[in-house]
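Figure 2 data, in text form.
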Amino acid sequence: MTLLLLACTGSNPEPSTSTSPVTTGPVTGDTLVMAVPFDPGNANPIVAPYALSGYFTQATQPGLVERRIEDGNLIYVPALAESWTWAEDKMSLTYVLHEGLSWSDGQPLTTEDVAFTFELIFDEQVASNWYSARDRIREVEVVDERTVTFHFATPSTPVHLQGNTHFGIVPKHVLADADRSSIRGHESSRTPLSSGPWIISEWAPEEKVVMVPNTNVVGRDAPRLNRVITRVLPEYATRLIELQNGSVDYILSVEVTDVEDLQRDYPHIELIRSRADGMAYVGWNLKDPKLQDLRVRQALTLAINEQKIINDQYTAAGEVYAQPCTGTISPVMTGWHAEIEPLGYDPERAKALLAEAGAEDLELDLMIQNGIPRIEQAAVRIQAMLADVGVTLNIQALEPNLFAASARKHEFEAMIWGFGHNAKVDPTIKWHSEGKYNWMQLNDPEIDRLLDEAMSTTDLELAQKNVREVQQRVYDQQPATFLYWEDNVAAIDGRFEGVAHNPYTMLESLETWWVPAGQQKYTR
């Protein structure tokens, strides 16, 4: 039934009847059908709304470099740039582009596009995700059509400074005259020109996104798959069923409760585990009168049994897929991660603190994003735990765009959200008083000072020391109840070879994914 519905669009795969022998090396052919819970929104890399959106922009509009994790450390690898060099004082970074770069309309891609991209990023009207890079970069100097130099405004470690230069590049000749205040809605946001291995050939909002190979890509391998079809299936149960019946090849996250069944009953499905891939918290709006008293926030944390949630939701076949959490920096980042003594689970102490604060009849609205079962399940468990200490929690499930808008405007009392593991450790966006994702509105001058110093020193040990101290100060103020670091489990049909992902994309080096000829499922 699903394949018939797909075929009606005229751009979907057709089953193959090939009986070719299995090959021993990479070949071309076949289609990857991926399912995601919501529409990616847009594919403009400077205003892409979600991490999911970034998977598409990295495939179609890469930056000068891309990020990878190697031995637990962040490194940068070539993308549009073939090489780069640092000035002796580490205050300037010069990139050289690959020769012969072009956009998919045939126009050359030059350093003028690079400079223009950063002009947009630095423009307040655009409201770019990367606007804060303006504080780091003093000037983007076009040396010639292939050479561009970033001059930095303040010192920092090279890994942090280079992290302000990796953003996807957009075409100047398309966006030069665009209304910058509404660039998210520009017609190119869903039909962008490509400079990467893939081209978005079709985007049916709330239905699917189709990518096909960019055969003129420079500096990268041409894709081996014929196409990638991303279907929007909001319900997790639907995504799982279609994976099991073969209508979908790849889903980005499997609930731990389903791991054992998949391992036992679907041997053709491969599970890919990423440890400490993301963390979750219950955020408290510190400007809300109900939550301004520290004793109330401490009581809420004491009433929530994080270990029970881990035991109930993140354990399968004797394997635990999560660990307790005290902050937003992954425990795998040993130099940066702070060892913090947690408040623990103590409902009686929680009741006492609520009584002291005059909040025995506390009632809160909890905002969550719909379509994420593990969040929905955790919310229900937390609701029951808080009820045990007399707190009424009303769960409000919002669709992704509304959730994000409410969070940005601080229009919530409590919310469940979290962050992925970011190896370029910079808690500024989360806990600085001006941080973009400081949704809880924590305002601590000492945290601001420590973060400013950590991100401006070239002394790695001092930066790490300050960041560890920030984590302790944040925890002491309880702007959030930190729940757990969770492993991610993705699931893909086992016929695909070369599959890789990292904390920044679930489609790492998608152009090198391939299927042996004898196992290929679709003819186009």
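Caption note: The longest helix spans residues 460-477.
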